[in-house]
Amino acid sequence: MSSEPAVEISNLTFSHSPPGGRPNDAIVALRDVNFTLPTGSRTLLIGGNGAGKSTLLYILAGKRMIQQGIVNVFGKDVFKDFPPNLVYLGTEWAMNAGVRRDIVVSDFLNSVGGYRHKERRDHLLDILDIDLDWHMHAISDGERRRVQLCMGLMGEWDLLLLDEVTVDLDVLVRDGLLNFLKDETVNRGATVVYATHIFDGLNDFPTHIAHMRDGSFVLNPTPWPLNPSSDNAGLTLHAIALRWLSSDRALRIQEEKEGKRAKTRGPRTNAAPDDVNRESFYKKYDYSH
Known about the structure:
Structural class: alpha/beta
CATH superfamily of the largest domain: P-loop containing nucleotide triphosphate hydrolases
Oligomer: single chain
Number of helices: 7
Order of helices and strands: EEEHEEEHHHEHEEEHH
Number of domains: 2
Shape: globular
Strand content: 15-25%
């Protein structure tokens, strides 16, 4: 296993403008991120929706140009010298119209090089329980997700970035996939960074866990299991995730009460004129009673 870090991020801050917004309306999605991941590690990113997990994975994959900071993968700048054997798998793939056409799975996999990786492809076909005679337009979202995973994993990748892609899998297939990924990190020294909201069955998977909130790391990637002196020592990943996300929500609510941030979630106690007008319109034309 290489002693070179798989990922090195320094002083990373990333902002984006909302749809239709102006540069001055930029939203800070990541702020002052600094961490290093060892080669062969399996890091679990834990955080609520909007915490910055997907943005971070997109940047690591070279899919978002940064304004500030350094992002290196295996010693290479992902924007200047994109590293080979980096794979990103996200949820948007299965929604693409191009992969919902009437194409047989065997032909689809061969069209993206499956014939070059026959041994690994066949191993993944067994793990993911894929029928090569399936037609892409006629299968379920979960089955289409399995095809995506086979496509992305059949080559010998060195860094794998997973963003919620196990959400459609049944528990048996998901367990087989996680065992496959674990073997890849142990036997080949590959590295995995995995963002998910499903924590059952994960206790034996990560080598590191991290806590993200509002674009920052509350806890940088830290070896798992946690140090016995930690406040969360002895808890399952599910229990830790519940504790962290509950704390994040309580902090947000407290900051809203103190006026440190605008209240945008939950019921509106002081409706804006436009909201009142909309409600009046729908009451006028409500024929459901």
